Amino acid sequence: MEEFEFFPELPKELRLLIWETALGLEEPRIVSIQQKCLKKTIGAWEKENNAIWPPLDRRTHPRQAGRAERTGYASKAQLEEQGRRARGWISKLSGRSYKKASLMGVACNTPPPSLLLVSHEARDVALKRYSLILACPQSNPETYFDFTLDTLYMTWRNFNRYRLKPTSPAPQLDVWNGFIDFDNLFKVERLAIQVISSRKTHFDEKRVAEVLRVFPSVKQLSLVAQHYHDSNLSALEQSDLCLTDDPIDVEEAFNAYHNFEYNEDEFHSYYGFWTLPVIQESTLLPRKTRAELEELQKDCERTIGEIDERIAEAEEGMWDNEYDMYEPNSE
Question: Which of 33, 31, 36, 32 is nearest to 161 (CA)?
Fold first, then answer.
């Protein structure tokens, strides 16, 4: 692609208009997040803050104390009990004191939108739509997210650092090393959660409801039965994901759907009075792979069409020959 070397010389108003147009062309993204270990340990945090981890007070966990009544979160006493369980679980997992375990942040597996990387001018335009979200007590946010278009994607494997068994990632999201930018959590409207095909994971209504409690404004929930990885693609191409209703592996998708038969009454019993989001069952795959599959499908349809035409021509010729055989001789 050739560069337009005179672009910087264009009037600023025109350049901004071009950046605004480019921003409007950005496609919805599937934004994948996961835990990451920080250098600071829990013991170092406790010593620095003269407090017991996990943080529950306003100074280290803003608005924690006042949000229970407003959002339906656990009470302070319940949070303290969760904290005691968290410390015990981490000690059991690590085989040593929880104080030596690392604090956690949240990393983003999805590259930022390209417009944020072009120039300061383009970045300023892009930031009108993209926000940095998912800040943790000791970690700055890394996830660029468009609340109007993007879907936040989570799997239990990506939030399984301090878990005894694969269940819901909600406790990690909520309290233990949880998010502190609560206003942003309330803006997330599209969420995708991977559903594992094995019943041993116990990823049921209760677990999904726990996650929805962290993101209470979700309007569309995608249950991902299969995340298809294409080993022929680069890491960058693998990270450009999209959702589809068509399973790549039909048997795996069927097993996952069969093992997660959600019940609306069950959801309400775990959450309270709320509006259940639109739930769809999907397959996740790289955008490039979907494009290749769609092209293969078109090629297949064209080939079938050509075969049908040849069969029709052959049948027509066969009937013409039979007609010629039985046509009376005019002599």
Answer: 36
pLDDT (average), residues 261-284? 66
The residue length of the chain stands at: 331
Q: Say what angle helices 264-271 and 205-214 make with each other, to 10 degrees.
A: 50
Model confidence at 330, in pLDDT bands (50, 70, 90)?
low
- Contact of 222 with 280, CB cutoff 8 Å: yes
**Does the pLDDT at position 165 exceed 70?**
no
Tally of CA atoms within 13 A in the half-sphere of 265 that contains its CB: 0
Give the residue-averaged pLDDT of 272-289. 79
Distance CA 216, CA 204 (A): 18
Cα torsion through 67, 68, 72, 77, rounded to 10: 150
Average pLDDT over residues 171-196: 78
Beta bridge partners of 36: 105
- Is residue 99 within 8 A of residue 90, CB to CB? The reply is no
> Any idea which residue has 């309330």 for tokens?
186
Whether the CB-CB separation of 79 and 175 falls below 8 Å is answered with: yes
Long-range contacts of 286-292 (CB under 8 A, 24+ apart): 286/228, 286/229, 286/230, 286/233, 286/237, 286/238, 286/239, 286/240, 286/241, 286/242, 287/240, 287/241, 287/242, 288/230, 288/233, 288/237, 288/240, 289/228, 289/230, 289/233, 290/242, 290/244
pTM over 0.85: no
Counting residues of the chain whose pLDDT is more than 70, the rounded percentage is: 69
How far, in Å, CA of 241 to CA of 1, rounded?
Answer: 24
In the chain, the DSSP E strands lie at: 30-41, 102-108, 131-133, 143-145, 151-154, 190-194, 220-227, 241-244, 278-286
Q: On the CB side of 52, how many CA atoms lie within 13 Å of its CA? A: 10
